[in-house]
Structure formats: structure tokens, C-alpha cells
Design a protein that fits this description.
Blueprint (H helix, E strand, L loop, with lengths): L2 H21 L8 H8 L20 E7 L18 E5 L2 E5 L17 H6 L7 E7 L5 H5 L4 H15 L6 E5 L2 H6 L3 H17 L6 E5 L9 H13 L3 E6 L9 E2 L3 E2 L1 H20 L27
Parallel strand pairs: 1-4, 1-5, 2-4, 5-6, 6-7
Antiparallel strand pairs: 2-3, 8-9
Helix pairs in contact: 7-8
């Protein structure tokens, strides 16, 4: 084979490989940082959504952080008639249905099922949500304050603070990316500690509910699950969220990772139970029934919740 023909064959093979990587969401030649930046959600749709009817001081305010299963990568709903949710975006508060602004993806979310799940427990809260969730984001992405996701998080939190919006609870649903990466327990734990400190320094004083959400491709991460257990043991402001890894049946997942509509509804039930537990541990208008973390001094106050 001539050198020219060999070169042409190599170029064609290279283009084929690049196309295969692009289909999988990995663009050959891009840096990890660039790929992550391309996945950050934009808010073009939010600009066309109706504004919230009015600031509801009695709403339960939830800040949702995580990757695809915290975003809009579930099976899309088929005109199920669920009411719109109040979502805080850079454009202000809008009323939205899936896909919810602030999360990547164009499918369904757990959070549209959450009002029904809470009502089944006797909780009639109007929800006020802020979603910051990006598919395939690892704990290293979240803890890197100078990376694209860290900068995006900081900008969103600053906008929420400027609007006078403070969460009552932070819901954390992340871990599948670290299953794929094989992140060690100590590495995950150290990265989460940096994220936690960053949130507290940015004025987020609310307790965090940590899901065990590592199942993807038929595998789950015992090191990540162990790291979450240790984090909850070490910090009184880190509470047990749901174990969504238990939703492992074919009926609750598609593609062996993301939730079907049945899975989204069941995940919402699990989240509602842990939210209910967190609210039951507090009294109306009083500080949460948790020993004050030394990091809460950054805000000068302990978190408060409203049952």
C-alpha cells in the first residue's frame, strides 16, 4: 500500500472513530472541561415560560443538585396533566413542566412527580425549586470551583441569593459518573467535602439530603455508597436521602441507567419519605433539630425548616 493511500485510509478510520465517540457524547480531541461546558443547560426555553403567580413564602424551597437522574433524562411524560412547578431560573421564577429549566436533557424528571408523592404523605406544600443538574457530571466536576460546572454553580447561587431565594433543603442525586470512573471512597469523600464547604461559604445553610444514586449499566459503586455513609456520620448537616439504587428492575429503568416513568414516580416516593423525615425532625419557626455545624458560621445562622 502506498504512503498516500495509507494516509487516506488512516484519515477515514480516524473520522469514523471520531463519529463513534461523538455519538457516545465524547468529542474526540475535546478536553474534559470543554465537553462538560457543552452539556451545561441553557435557559432559552425558560424565557418563554409564564412567570410564577407570586412569591409564596409558605412554599417548601428545594435546591436540587446532581447529574442525569436529577435532571431531565427520564422517560418523557405523555400529557399526564401534572400541574406546572415553580422553578427559579436566571430569568426569575417561571412555571414549568418537564423538561425542567436548570437540568440537562429533554425528557422527564423525578421532581414533577414529587408533589403527588408528598401529598400521599399528607404534605400539601407548594414547591419552589431550583434545579442545577448536568448529565455525566462527576464529583470532581462539582468540587472544582474553577471548572465550568463550579463556575456555573456559583453564578446560579449568586442569582438565587440576589432574588432572596434560600433553600430549606438541598437534594443531592449523583454518583453514576463515579461508578463508571471507578472513583475511590476517599477520593469521593474528599471531593464532596470541598463541595460542601463551597456551598456553605456561598451562603447555603440548609441541610443536604444525600441519595445513594450510583446504579448504571448494571453496576453500582460500593465505594461511593460507603463515602456517603461516612459523610453523614461525620456531619450533622448531611442527612440520609433515598437509596434509588434499589430501583433496579427493568420496569424502573431504560438503558440500564435512567428512570422510566414508573421509575421516576417510585424515585419521587423515596425522596418524599426522606423529605418528610427531615421536616419531622424540626419544629415550625425554630432551628433544625441538628447540632450546628462549624461551617454554618459562614452565614451566621443555623438552617430553619417549616413542617
Amino acid at each position: 500500500m502506498s504512503r498516500g493511500r495509507l494516509l487516506a485510509t488512516s484519515v477515514i478510520a480516524g473520522l469514523g472513530l471520531a463519529a463513534a465517540w461523538q455519538v457516545s457524547g465524547l468529542h474526540l480531541g475535546d478536553t474534559e472541561e470543554r465537553r462538560l461546558a457543552q452539556r451545561l443547560p441553557d435557559f432559552a426555553r425558560a424565557a418563554a415560560l409564564p412567570p410564577c403567580a407570586g412569591a409564596d413564602q409558605a412554599a417548601l424551597r428545594l435546591l436540587i443538585l446532581g447529574q442525569s437522574n436529577a435532571a431531565n433524562h427520564g422517560a418523557p411524560a405523555e400529557n399526564d396533566g401534572r400541574p406546572a412547578l415553580d422553578l427559579w431560573t436566571p430569568q426569575g421564577c417561571v412555571q414549568a413542566t418537564d423538561p425542567l429549566p436548570g437540568g440537562s436533557g429533554s425528557g422527564g424528571s423525578i421532581w414533577s412527580h414529587l408533589p403527588d408523592a408528598l401529598r400521599a404523605l399528607g404534605r400539601q406544600h407548594r414547591l419552589s425549586l431550583a434545579v442545577i443538574a448536568v448529565d455525566a457530571s462527576s464529583i470532581a466536576d462539582w468540587s472544582d470551583a474553577k471548572g465550568p460546572l463550579g463556575r456555573h454553580l456559583q453564578q446560579r447561587l449568586q442569582a438565587l441569593h440576589a432574588a432572596g431565594w434560600q433553600p430549606d433543603l438541598v437534594l443531592w442525586q449523583q454518583g453514576e459518573a463515579d461508578t463508571r470512573k471507578g472513583t475511590a471512597q476517599a477520593e469521593y469523600q474528599q471531593s464532596f467535602e470541598r463541595l460542601r464547604l463551597s456551598l456553605r461559604e456561598q451562603g447555603i445553610a440548609a441541610p443536604m439530603l444525600l441519595a445513594r444514586s450510583t446504579l448504571c449499566g448494571g453496576r453500582r459503586s460500593e465505594p461511593v455508597r460507603a463515602a456517603i455513609t461516612d459523610l453523614q456520620r461525620l456531619h450533622t448537616d448531611l442527612l440520609a436521602g433515598p437509596d434509588t439504587d434499589q430501583l433496579d428492575a427493568a420496569a424502573t429503568r431504560f438503558g440500564a441507567c435512567h428512570f422510566s416513568q414508573a421509575g421516576l414516580a417510585q424515585a419521587a416516593v423515596l425522596w418524599a419519605r426522606t423529605i418528610d423525615d427531615a421536616l419531622r425532625s424540626t419544629k415550625t419557626g425554630e432551628p433544625a433539630a441538628l447540632p450546628a455545624s462549624t461551617l454554618w458560621s459562614a452565614t451566621g445562622q443555623a438552617p430553619t425548616l417549616r413542617p
